[in-house]
Structure formats: structure tokens, C-alpha cells
Amino acid sequence: MPGPDIVFVFFTAAVALSLAPGPDNIFVLTQSALYGRISGLVVTLGLCTGLMVHTVAVAFGLAAVFAASETAFTAVKLIGAGYLLYLAWQSLRAGQTGLTGETPDQPGLAQLYRRGVIMNITNPKVAIFFLAFLPQFADPGFGALAPQMLGLGLVFILAALLVFGGVSWGAGYLGTWLRTTPKAQIVLNRVAAVVFIGLAVRLLISQR
């Protein structure tokens, strides 16, 4: 693992990157506003699990192979966009769920966790970003690069967990307040659908 000064700089950069508006934190915000703080935290855990997958891929060279293949990049991009459009369709058909308590329209925690995992691992831009970002902080002078990559990935995941956890907690309060307004759940579902469609379009037009 690199020295403490390098790790601190890396952690600071990771926090800043996690705070920047992007698909992951927007996804956490909408899910937290719709389903509550605990649901948002579960989605966050799913997203961080996806980051673990990308970290392992970078550490062992799989991301480099993926980044070099236009076919693989496009295939993953299409899968990710298709999943986001599926979530948009689910939000549009959800209508107004009950303003108090759980309803059949509300996904379970396991389903929310899977959403976070799929959302992250089907975004090829994350894999390429990790491939470009992590090696900048690895140093052969500190030993083998693969363990360093894994360690840096865990530091990045910690930063993302703290930031996304804060977003989910704050958005959960917002959702609780909005759900006290008549038909607020319909509005939240429609907003979530628009966000999912926007993220899908952004993913479809993305380039390596």
C-alpha cells in the first residue's frame, strides 16, 4: 500500500469525485426519496459492491482487456441502458403508493441491493475510469501493484460509502416530507422515471 500521504490525497480525491453529480449519487438520491433512508443505504451498499467488482477487474488486468474491446464496451452499455429504461417503466407504472407504510409497489431490500449492483457494474465508464484513476496512485516501490490497486479500491469504496450514505440520509428526510403531501408519491415516481431515462440516454451516447 502507498504511504499515508498518498492515501490521504487519494481519499480526498475520491470524496470529491463521489460528491460530483453523476449517475450513482443521482440514483441514490431518487431511490432514497422514493423509498426512504434505509432503502437508500441498501442501494449504496449495492453500488459499492459494484465498485468492488471494478476494483478486482482493474487489479488483475481484466478492465484493460474490456477497455480495448469496442464490442464489450457497447454490449455492457446497452445492458445498462436497458436496465435503466426498465426501472423508468417500473416507476411510471407504479402510480401512487401508500403514503404510510410498505406497499406491494415498493421493492424489497434485496431488490434494491441488486439494483445498486447492476446499476454500477453495467456502466462501462466506471471500469474505464478506475482503469485510468487507480494506477496513478500505485507505486512499484511499495511492492506488487495488484494488492495496491485492491487497497486503493477499498479506500475509494469507503469514500463513496460515506458520501452516498450522506446523500441517502438527506434524501430520505426529503422523501418523508414530500410523502405527507397528497399525490406526492406520483410526483416522486415520475421524477425518478425522468432521471432513469436521462441516465439511460447519457449512457447510450457515452464513448470510451
In short:
The protein is mostly helical and 208 residues long. It has one domain. The chain has helices spanning 4-19, 23-35, 37-59, 62-67, 70-94, 109-121, 124-133, 145-178, 184-205.
What attributes characterize this protein structure?
208 residues, mainly alpha
Q: What structural class do you assign from the helix and strand content? A: mainly alpha
Average per-residue pLDDT, rounded, comes to: 80
Individual helix count: 9
**Helical content class:** over 70%
Low-confidence stretches: 96-104
Ends: how far apart? 29 Å
- What is the radius of gyration computed over CA atoms, rounded to a whole number of angstroms? 18 Å
Shape: globular
Biggest sheet features:
none
- Strand segment tally: 0
What number of structural domains do the residues give? Answer: 1
How big a fraction of the residues is strand?
under 5%
What is the succession of H and E elements?
HHHHHHHHH
